[in-house]
Design goal:
Length: 597
């Protein structure tokens, strides 16, 4: 009997020691970052036995869509949540059919898209917005405006036709709460039919087409980030992003993490951008939550030729550095590289704009580096030899972009209607110093009591969080209704605003030379200001056309739309912490206020 007990004694002692060790782990070592060695917690391509970095590029297939007839494309999506380690840090993210980011959709102009969405989240609703596409009726995917959230275990079918004239770089993302910050987004590319494709592949002679969805990323959950932002002790300072993801992949330096925060982190190889051709088309989308960024690729020449959803601009000067691209914006560019680009020293740099960072929330680094590899091959065609590179080359600033010169009478000389809005942050005793944003004094929140979407609800029942000016259309079909939208920004920082359902011409975008002591507003209803606006006369010759625009701090923008898409269309800041605390409104367009299903 005694010998039997002795045989159990040693294992029992070892187990007891292990329990004591685990119980006292925090006291022994502090709340250190866990460095995981379990291959299951690493991206599949980056285990300890794999010396190859993950690939970044999403390669597109224009040849499968440009020459075929319009058709109906069908998708069935199952939305779930699970843990992934996109930058080496384990985090709960949203998945579409098990993918993060979601599947990349490719179509052509004139296609009909039918997308069945099944919500398999346990306790969350969901809705999908098709950013930049000109939607109709109830398919726009905005909770509180065009639809109620798809409930848990429920489903909803989005069915819409892509306009015959729409082609370019778009994307989709959740428009329910702050889900986009935890990865509920994906790419959406509309290829131009070959009979209309006069210049894309022919004029620029690119040999491959790639999508880069680039954005800031937080190690914490979106809920945690939002709570931190709304904490009165933070005084409205935005939480600092931890890293940058490109197509859902990045590299976080585990050793740089604060010792008092606990997180599962694995040191991984930086993901690499590998291109098969030295002359490529890059479709770049800012899918981030807070910051704009600048893209730099040494030894390469980049030329921007489209902004947002295929809106053509005047060919930009060649440069190895382009920015700033703000959340929600897109740019299409041609990249051509020197022969040395396939050396091991080449890299792509994403530098975050520091505008939303203060001394209270300064990130550990603004620049994020990704290796670049291009197949060694003949550089390009004879008429596209790259220019010599210089280290002193000036960057191309997107704010200086100009549109193609418009044919005469494209834009009406004077708008039929003008609306003036102002954006302002309000923190005070009433809100207990919680940051709250307003447009013309109204902080937006989804309609409640009743919670019916505005598109299905009479104005008589809308609550006080709904600021929705009505744009009345002419009953004469031969008379177009042109509308000017003037937005004054009373904040020191800029805000990227996205308008649903429309593209707009940017007639003026005023950056004040000094905005530390006074507002630089513009009142188009004042005769003196209307005759001499601070930003100069409206550009009616070659304005850029967009669906997302940056409104400079203490400055303003003047946008002009042709009001021909009936419905209720959201207009909001694309910085997620801002739109979720009130920086949003809508425009109702129609002959009379009513239903638009």
């Amino acid at each position: 009997m005694g010998s039997k007990w002795k045989s159990y004694l040693l294992p029992a002692l070892l187990i007891s020691c292990l329990v004591v060790f685990l119980f006292n782990y925090r006291e022994l070592f502090g709340n250190h970052l866990f460095l995981l060695q379990n291959p299951l917690d690493r991206p599949s391509s980056q285990t300890s036995n794999n010396t190859q970095p993950a690939e970044l590029a999403i390669r597109l297939h224009p040849d499968q869509h440009r020459e075929r007839e319009p058709t109906t494309l069908r998708e069935k999506w199952h939305i779930t949540k699970d843990y992934r380690s996109p930058d080496g840090v384990r985090k709960l993210v949203y998945l579409i059919n098990g993918q993060f980011p979601g599947p990349t959709l490719e179509a052509r102009s004139g296609d009909t898209m039918v997308i069945e969405v099944y919500n398999e989240l346990e306790d969350e609703g969901v809705a999908i917005h098709w950013h930049g596409l000109r939607m109709k009726g109830s398919m726009d995917g905005v909770v509180g405006i065009t639809q109620a959230p798809i409930p848990s275990t429920g489903n909803f079918t989005y069915e819409f036709k892509v306009g015959n004239e729409q082609a370019g770089t778009f994307w989709y993302h959740s428009h329910e709460g702050i889900q986009r910050a935890d990865g509920l987004y994906g790419g959406l590319i509309v290829h131009k039919p070959i009979q209309k494709d006069v210049f894309d592949s022919t004029r620029f002679q690119f040999e491959e087409d790639n999508l880069l969805m680039i954005g800031d990323w937080y190690l914490q959950s979106a809920e945690h980030v939002q709570e931190s932002y709304e904490d009165p002790g933070n005084w409205g300072h935005e939480p600092v992003p931890s890293s940058v993801l490109i197509n859902g992949k990045g590299k976080y330096d585990c050793s740089s993490h604060k010792r008092d925060e606990e997180m599962a982190c694995t040191n991984i190889f930086p993901p690499r951008l590998s291109l098969k051709s030295s002359r490529s088309r890059l479709r770049v989308t800012n899918v981030g939550i807070l910051t704009g960024f600048t893209l730099k690729i040494p030894h390469c020449r980049m030329t921007v030729f489209q902004l947002d959803g295929g809106n053509v601009i005047e060919k930009s000067p060649e440069s190895s550095s382009i920015g700033i691209l703000y959340p929600g914006e897109r740019m299409d560019l041609i990249m051509e590289c020197d022969a040395i680009t396939h050396s091991t020293d080449s890299e792509m740099t994403i530098t975050l704009d520091s505008e939303n960072f203060s001394m209270h929330n300064t990130p550990s680094n603004l620049a994020h580096y990704f290796p670049l590899q291009i197949a060694s091959s003949t550089l390009a065609r004879k008429d596209h030899s790259p220019s010599p590179t210089t280290d002193e080359e000036k960057p191309f600033y997107l704010r200086s972009a100009k549109g193609d010169t418009l044919p005469e009478n494209t834009i009406q000389g004077v708008a039929n209607q003008t609306y003036m809005f102002y954006v302002q942050m309000e923190t005070g005793k009433e809100d207990e110093d919680i940051p709250t944003w307003g447009i013309n004094g109204t902080a937006w929140a989804p309609q409640a009591s009743p919670s019916t979407p505005l598109i299905d609800l009479s104005r008589a029942y809308w609550n006080t969080n709904q600021f929705v000016p009505f744009i009345a259309l002419s009953r004469d079909p031969d008379n177009a209704t042109w509308v000017d939208i003037v937005v004054n920004n009373f904040d020191m920082r800029g805000h990227p605003f996205h308008l649903h359902g429309y593209d707009f011409y940017v007639l003026s975008q005023y950056y004040p030379t000094s905005h530390h002591h006074s507002y630089n507003t513009y009142n188009p209803f004042s005769p003196s200001e209307a005759s001499s606006p601070p930003g100069g006369s409206y550009n009616l010759i070659n304005p850029i056309k967009k669906d997302t625009v940056y409104i400079p701090g203490m400055g303003y923008v003047v946008l002009r739309i042709l009001a021909d898409n009936v419905g209720i269309w959201f207009f909001h800041c694309h910085i997620l912490t801002h739109s979720s605390t009130g920086m949003a409104m809508a425009l109702e367009v129609g002959e009379r206020s009513g239903r638009y299903v």
